[in-house]
Sequence to fold (290 residues):
Amino acid sequence: MAAIQWYPGHIARAERQLKEQLNRVDVVLEVRDARIPLATHHPQLEGWLKDKARVLVLNRMDMISPAVQEAWEAWFRDRGEIPYFTDARQGKGVSQVARAAETAGSGVNERRIARGMRPRPIRAVVIGFPNVGKSALINRLLRRKIVESARRAGVTRQLRWVRLSDRPGKSANLEILDAPGIIPWRLDNQENAVKLAICEDIGEASYDNQRVAAMMVDLMTQLPELAGQQAPSELLRDRYHLDPQAITGESYLTQLGGDRHQGDIERAACELLNDFRKGTLGKIPLELPD
Fold:
């Protein structure tokens, strides 16, 4: 089977421009998908940022259970990081991210004042894989829709500076650089690539729906039962009246197509993927802490 790879030209250009802009940035907001917070971490990011202040944002908290959120928070804190969980579409957790960005960048104005210079807005860049919710987060930070946002990869194609205006009770402003999604030029870890495809955090031209849907079923049969809810395999069984435990994901997809779509396997694959992506199947993370 062909490997999942996706690196369109606009991402290559954006990556070059982003590296050029990083020296102007005070704070980096790294946005990841809370369902796959490890797979949506760019392996080269630390090398680009060096000692720059960073705020870790795990978006789509509405797609995982509180127990999973607590487990990831403990896992990241054990490694010296503070994760900020958000649901950017609904605005949950966004105010905490704004405060964290202002706090992380406060040293910039302290140094300017010490040199007799006037404070300036803190410059932040929002970085992350495609479709993890960067533009939705920016719109919530700005409290108005100023950048395009949609549930698909590749919507943002150019870098753009936008400013967060004064807010009551706030002494600092933010200038935010909205950047297109960045992704490694080569996805060597194909298990992560499949997770990106399942969560729609990669362009749809890079993968085959049937292959990814079948692998999603296989993955869900391996996931453990989560605190306070059924095991993912049981969620599949209850929704489609078909038990995935005794068969492969490919066989599951074939039977589902026969039972529900007159043998149309592609429709069955799209149904499975869309039900997962919309949360219809339930709050299902594809990664859990060690």
